[in-house]
Design goal:
There is one protein chain. By secondary structure, the chain is mostly helical. It has one domain. The protein contains six helices and no strands. The mean pLDDT is 86.
Length: 166
């Protein structure tokens, strides 16, 4: 899938969970960054275009190690042990990327190095992916508007309470 679809799905998840974490900004930054990471093994990705990641592309093929739950879980456990504040955000966004890619024709190898591929029928850049992107984008916009309205009404309620006490 294209990165815009992965981002729309991740923003949806961020909006669902951001009120339940203590470090909201850190959660958002880590989740957005983790969305990009599985594709560092291809020169066509946003991060993979950087020369610093080119050496990985020489040794690791696309949709191999980095597109596996084996890698996701391993890194998430390391984060949970050493930097617990970012473990959930990383796991959430990274695993959502993998789940979305598992529905594409190319699929993923979920438990690398085991060679079994999990794949679906969605063509990257095709009409179904575009529909998924539009669905999540509209849902993201709706949720953002909903949060803004809640904040406005909550602030109006607080203002009324303040002035009723004065």
């Amino acid at each position: 899938m294209f990165i815009k679809t992965h981002l729309a799905i991740t923003v949806f998840a961020i909006l669902l969970f951001v009120n339940h974490v203590s470090s909201k900004l850190l959660f958002i930054i880590v989740a957005l960054a983790a969305t990009f990471l599985p594709d560092i093994d291809t020169a066509f990705s946003t991060l993979g275009k950087f020369k610093g990641f080119r050496f990985l592309q020489f040794f690791i093929r696309h949709r191999g190690l980095f597109h596996s739950f084996s890698f996701c879980i391993f890194v998430s456990i390391l984060f949970a042990m050493f930097v617990p504040s970012i473990a959930f955000a990383f796991f959430l966004a990274y695993s959502l990327h993998l789940v979305a890619d598992s529905f594409t024709i190319e699929g993923i190898k979920p438990f690398w190095p085991y060679n079994k591929t999990s794949s679906g029928k969605i063509r990257t850049g095709g009409k179904i992916e575009t529909g998924i992107f539009v669905f999540f984008l509209l849902f993201d916009i709706f949720m953002i508007i909903f949060y803004i309205v809640l904040l406005l009404f909550d602030n109006l309620y607080l203002i009324n309470i303040f002035f009723s006490c004065v």
